[in-house]
Amino acid sequence: MAKEELPGVLILDIGGTHGVLENLAALLKKHFHLITMKEFLGNKEEMGKKIQSIFVFWCRPTIDRELLESLPNLKVVANSGVGVDHLDLKLISSFGVKVTNTPHAVADPTADVGMALMLASARRLVEGSVLNFPG
To answer: pTM for the complete prediction?
Structure first.
């Protein structure tokens, strides 16, 4: 499938402080034509027609009315995290756009970290750590 035939997905950037991780971007590129916010802002009219989805990573890009109005073919906002409290669901749905998230993506790691913290606390692991000895 040619790059132009793949559905366009708006992302903030690849790499950097708030961009999509490079290995995740490589996976996404197999199924989507990734369009960065910089590319989109450089040619809103042409790029806006190609974008069918927005991939929100680290709560970015910010989804507001101006952005939604500039994306006539937008179908879905895909949030990479569990919560959607950073998204204006009423505004997004008023444009006929669906919102998705990954509700169970971090359930096991969260439980693992919780257990590790309880065990470390019960065994006073941090107090006995070599790193905490003076000298």
So the answer is: 0.77
